[in-house]
């Protein structure tokens, strides 16, 4: 066996490992945030699910005896705001156009690459299980071929340009440079490496046929295609990134769900349904030690009765 | 901007004196006529002997007016040790279940993009001083947390006594208005970080400004009011209010006190009784004219809950006490008067402290006031309010509780010359007195809060009255919040804006009463002097 074949089979097996680390890590992160106790209400208006009021930032507290009235929650309003933020990064657009151009190219590029992964995955299923070669005259195969080509190329170009721009911005602006720690740089670099090596690899696989072939080898018994070293390196860099993501700030897509949905938009009033959980929480020990606190007694004995 | 011009994160640990010095020239330029030199009193230097007891090492201003400066190496080490213990508790479930999720998310996910800086009125008004960036204190806390508690790599910061001294003061250079959070693409809450640093200092080290803690929540828990007012004094003021109503309305109203089983227990910030009795008196007139079943309480005549600014334990103690009194009086609901932080503390934040029998229905007075005004139970003639009126949106009522329209609907009905400030509603600017600043009057802190924290608001007020600066035209800033009123009072005094340009301020209920046809003479004294 030549070394390319050895590397190809290594990179095939590490694909599974990286993917498993990613899934386990994401589940761990999600669980960490979703199992923190309820917190005191700290919503911030506008809250987009306030039906009929979100437009100007109003809440159900604008109604007299609000507790007697039906609370109107608009899931559509919340989804709309969420999608606008996810698809267009609205909050940066309205406040900082220069940053938006870079950040948006970067994120849009990444979204396109995620779609590209899906297309490559569909392509590999088509090859491995429907036994339709790509490219071929089959309309579905033709569709996949061209869409994959355009989305993949555009995605990588946009993400690389945006990512490099963001990195350069951090390096030349003295304030940003001061705030940026090396793990911040590492995040950007670990994203940029597969992007840039991906552009080089594209030269060797201009129609993404090898990409589809490799994916097919992952999901079926088909043999791993013969890949040039550049592509193997690119695959390795992608895997490093995928395995690294759960342990980094790149998981802000999870963080953002919680900051918005569970903090800034969490205006659920306690009409009795939270009493049990509150009782549990205030039965915990209060560890603080300032003079006005009965240290190590429970929250409850500290706060009930004005704590004389 | 060259590299050496910026104040870096690491500089917070730098031994020595003031990190930055503010000058009038640096500050945001005010609109005419305040753009001319000499229109604004100069900035002063801290007194040399303050440095022994207080922290002047940040910007020369002192918010924490208790002598907490360590006197020996031993004391320094004690403070550092306690600070780290506190930080451990702040990031633990037991110590901080109340804000654990929001805090840890904000520590973990900030991209440090600085998008929030331009949203901060203090940063912009200061002439964009780096230490006032919403991200600055957050990044300092994040690095200390990552380095000493979470043991994550890459956190370049030294935790020495200067770091802690300056961070303590810096937690009081933010009014917790949370405007920065609205523009954050990740929902990071740098306002919350200020709040959490304050909590660490209070709950672990017992360090907080006197006005908030010792003479604030502690006094309130002891005597019933942070003003120290006793029930007898309160009853005297109620009597005074009844006389005031007689003088203005020409008829006597008996203000209900401690009426068991009333529909509404109305609670005001006790500052109203002492500084602006015409506001609770206006509510008495309106509620009586509308025929409501309501009462004031001699056990609970102070709605304030300063705990919301710096200490969750004090916040919870006070909130639970309100609920106890309300239960004892057997009222159906507690209505919070024109006080922003009391509204947010009792209605929104304490919602997850009040459980079981403490879970008493609570609401803001503004929707109720709107319903009364629109019920036509009051005989109103808007032309009585024929002077320019603008509305200040208290952060706690608007951005943080979502009560936006009721006050506007009222103003559009009763004030023909009402005009909005820009921006307004949930995107308003803080009055500069938020998070306790309005009541913090020691040493040189008022100078900082009026000149820097309130600067944007004063600019907005001047802009709103641009077309009517003529001193012959009385102008009214309607601020339905006691703390905001206190701050606006200090601002108008500092710039002599009432004296020179006839700009007045007050609440919303007074404006409603001033439009009442039955009134013998105008409710506002400044209108009487006019005619």
Tell me what you see in this structure.
- The complex is a heterodimer of chains A (308) and B (531).
- By secondary structure, chain A is mainly α.
- Chain A folds into two domains: 3-37 and 89-264, Transmembrane di-heme cytochromes, Chain C (Fumarate Reductase Cytochrome B subunit); 275-306, no CATH class.
- Helices cover 64% and strands 0% of the residues of chain A.
- The model of chain A has no long low-confidence stretch (mean pLDDT 95).
- In chain B, strand 5 (389-391), helix 17 (405-414) and strand 6 form a beta-alpha-beta unit.
- Chain B has two domains: 3-205, no CATH class; 220-530, no CATH class.
- The model of chain B has no long low-confidence stretch (mean pLDDT 96).
- Chain B has helices spanning 73-90, 93-96, 100-109, 121-125, 134-149, 161-170, 179-182, 190-205, 213-223, 231-249, 270-275, 278-290, 307-310, 312-329, 340-348, 365-374, 405-414, 445-453, 455-464, 482-494, 497-501, 509-514, 525-530, and strands spanning 264-267, 294-295, 333-336, 362-364, 389-391, 418-419, 475-478, 503-506.
- The longest helix of chain B has 19 residues, at 231-249.
- Chain B has a four-stranded parallel β-sheet with strand order 2-1-3-4. In chain B, strands 6-5-7-8 form a four-stranded parallel β-sheet, with helices on both faces.
- With 531 residues, chain B is mainly α.
- At the A-B interface, helix 6, helix 7, helix 10, helix 11 and helix 12 of A face helix 1, helix 2, helix 3, helix 5 and helix 8 of B.
Instruction: Kindly provide the name of the CATH class of the largest domain in chain A.
Output: Mainly Alpha
Percent of residues in helices of chain B comes to 40-55%
Q: What is the correct CATH architecture of the largest domain in chain A? A: Up-down Bundle
**Cα distance, first to last residue of chain B?**
55 Å
Number of discrete helical segments of chain A: 12
State the end-to-end CA separation of chain A.
81 Å
The total number of structural domains of chain B is 2
Number of domains of chain A: 2
Shape field of chain B: globular
**Beta strand count of chain A:** 0
Under CATH, the topology of the largest domain in chain A is which?
Fumarate Reductase Cytochrome B subunit
| Percent helix of chain A | 55-70%
